[in-house]
Each structure stands twice: as structure tokens, then as C-alpha cells.
Write a structure and sequence with these properties.
alpha+beta, 11 strands, Jelly Rolls, five-stranded antiparallel sheet, six-stranded mixed sheet, 3 helices, 19% helix, single chain
């Protein structure tokens, strides 16, 4: 996967000038800290992801010509929260991986296969379901704190191009990876 750091110069061409990702992420983090139940947190993450998606000029950014998807960091907060624009090409596939306590995905454009796994008692994984998702679909999860075995999944891009907004409560690159024979 190709990763692009999102300093101001990199991100300026991705959004309109009225939307400041750093300011909006700070507001979001403050709002998340005021919520005391996971249902409200999930609704709030989904709303924020849609707001980001509505303000990013994603079509100005092309997926790379590498085999993997491309992460473009829009903002990172000192508390660990991060927001990314992910660019996909047909056939790009993530490894099976988990995430920090909270995560959210908003599919701006494209068709994807989302395979959801559960962690078994023996630390192996089992496929729970495979679903097709696309433009406008949003997923959010609140799992266990202090672990990266939450929301274990694999994403495959089925369309020629795809774009998603991904939001994580901590560095997504720390996520656990899993092997699965399926």
C-alpha cells in the first residue's frame, strides 16, 4: 500500500477551502469525549465521516498504480484519532486485519466486498459473513479498548476505482493482521 502524508500542501487539493480537517477533527474528538454510550458514538462517527466525504474533492486524487490501495492522511489528532481518504483500484485488497477500539468507514464511490471475521477463543479467525458494499454505505464499530483485534475484516475493491473515508481512534497501521485459510 502506498501512503501519503497529509501536510497542508498535500491536502489542499483534496478539499474545498472552507473545510479545515484539523479543526473539524478537533471538534469531532471533543464531541466523542462527551458521549457515554456506543450507539451515540457510532451515530456521531457516521455523521462525521459523511461530513468529511461531502467536503473532500476526492476525484482530484487518483489511486496509485501500485498493487495496493493508497492511504492519504487528511488529519491526525494528538489523542490518536486520524482521518484518511483511501483510494482504490479494481482488485486492491487489504490483508485481514483488526483495528483500534473505534473505527468508521464511509464509501464515497465504488463497489467493494467486505469480509467480516470473528476472533475465536484459540486466536484463530472465522469468516462471519461477506457482503457487497458501495457508494454511500457507512460502517462504524466500537470495540474493546487497548487492543487492535476489533472489527476484523478484509476489503476488496470490485469497481475500476473506489474511494473511502476511514476514521480511527488510534493509528490504524498498528492493527493486528491475521492468516485465514478459506
Amino acid at each position: 500500500m502506498k501512503e501519503v502524508s497529509a501536510g497542508k500542501n498535500t491536502v489542499d487539493n483534496l478539499h474545498n477551502n472552507d473545510f479545515d480537517y484539523d479543526i473539524e477533527l478537533s471538534k469531532f474528538v471533543s464531541g466523542m469525549q462527551s458521549l457515554d454510550n456506543n450507539d451515540d458514538r457510532i451515530r456521531y462517527m457516521k455523521s462525521f465521516a459523511k461530513t468529511v466525504a461531502n467536503n473532500v474533492e476526492y476525484k482530484d486524487f487518483e489511486p496509485s498504480d501500485c498493487e495496493d490501495y493508497q492511504r492519504n492522511y487528511l488529519s491526525r489528532h494528538s489523542s490518536g484519532w486520524e482521518v484518511m481518504l483511501i483510494c482504490w483500484e479494481k482488485g486492491n485488497k487489504t490483508k485481514i486485519h483488526g483495528h483500534p477500539e473505534m473505527c468508521c468507514y464511509y464509501y464515497i464511490e465504488g463497489d467493494f466486498e467486505l469480509e467480516l471475521f470473528k476472533l475465536c477463543d484459540d486466536n484463530n479467525i472465522e469468516l462471519e459473513k461477506s457482503i457487497r458494499v458501495g457508494t454511500g454505505d457507512t460502517f462504524a464499530d466500537c470495540g474493546q479498548p487497548d487492543t487492535y483485534c476489533n472489527h476484523i475484516h478484509r476489503v476488496t475493491c470490485l469497481s475500476e476505482k473506489g474511494y473511502s473515508i476511514n476514521i480511527y481512534s488510534d493509528d490504524a497501521c498498528k492493527g493486528d493482521e491475521y492468516d485465514w485459510e478459506g
